[in-house]
Amino acid sequence: MARQIFKHLIDNPNIKVSWIKAHVNYPGNEKADELAKEATTTGQPYTVLLPTTHIKSALKARLLTDWQELWTKGDTGCPIHKVLPKVSLHAQNWSRELTIFLMEHGPFPTYLHRFRLSQTDCCNCGEPTTYEPILKGHQIHPADFNLDLQISTKVKQQYPIKNATYTDGSRTEGTGSAFCHFDQTATIIKEWQAQLHTDNNIFQAELLAINQAILFHQNKSNPSFIWTDSLSSLQAIQNPTSPHPLVQEIQNQLHSNKSIHIGWVRAHVGHLGNESADALAKDAIIHGTSFSLLKPLSHLKKLLNQELLTNWKKDWDKLNLGKPIHEIIPTPSFKNHNWDRREVMFFTEHGPFTSYLKRFNLRSSDDCSCGDIGTPLHYATSCPHTKNWHFSKPSSNNLLHWKKSILNNNQSRKRLQILMTFLMENDTLINGPSTN
């Protein structure tokens, strides 16, 4: 069609085709628009070849229909079917970790046991469905997400008691969640307490209290004011892409009820409302009504880290390698000790020392040029070449304490680093030429 128009324009140079803005009340354009709409029902039939885009659209529609039928009837992919019941060609952009979690195909005993990769389908952590899912993306359209008018994190001079609700969460030996509501005479007329599982964290307890307080006010027409001392909870609710299920539930509650407002109150400043909610939350750990809540992923991470450290400790104790470091750090951890490269060489005894270089035939002897065996201790305490940076020589019984005292003193560490720099820069002078 476009080629035919082009040919007509070539053959008829007096004909000009120009663009005009649509729907700006230009009489000619408006009249043509009216005629085109009328032609859809009363116009004369005209045969035009269908565009290839129509074929593509029809094939896509047919593909999606067949795919939807198989997806609904099929036995595989049930966990994903619950999340995405309707098929589409739209990419979900899920991360690998989220895909593994939602499919339940990953490092879970329930999955590994099916392929005999685990002797049991039980685990101290439980099944993956006992943990709250991660829900990424916007649950409310960004253009409609205007909760800032309902949430305040500003410090106020006075916090009301009359017709106000205060929430709090507590975690000591267990986890508790609670809220209390005061009437117009500043008397508590409603108390709610929930005893959560010990694996639930304080963040969940705070959010649950806010959630239940909103439910308490949901059917009221008058403005309702809820106060919490959890600033992190309010900041999470203000985040339109928060992945926490409880946060998203609260966001939907506030979105559907504009008369509910939530504010922040400082904790432990003697305010009656906050102190009352705090006391109820602590009491809820023992006397609250049992409330089932999915465990946070942070609990799973904690269990996995504990198991990793336990296995690491067993291997660390069994292996013969790394004994010099094992004496200083007998228990592995995720703590960064921030050792300098020169300190690592000294305490691992893997560095510019003839006692080490001889093992790899990089020196013909393990003797220092001064005649003694070139161990790290020798260079740090008695070698005449390094006299300017010597430490007091420890007894064999106090050697470990001597090493730890250096690491615990910044001045000693700095002196050791200078010593090691001198050894590396004067290796040939001190240790002799390399056999290579």
Automatic annotation (TrEMBL):
GO terms for biological process: DNA replication, removal of RNA primer. Belongs to the RNase H family. Its EC number is 3.1.26.4. It comes from Araneus ventricosus. Residues 1-41, 159-286 form the RNase H type-1 domain. It comes from the Eukaryota. It catalyses: Endonucleolytic cleavage to 5'-phosphomonoester. InterPro entries: RNase_H, RNaseH-like_sf, RNaseH_domain, RNaseH_sf. Keywords: Endonuclease, Hydrolase, Metal-binding, Nuclease. SUPFAM superfamilies: Ribonuclease H-like. GO terms for molecular function: metal ion binding; nucleic acid binding; RNA-DNA hybrid ribonuclease activity. It is an enzyme of class 3 (hydrolase). This is ribonuclease H. The keyword Cytoplasm does not apply.
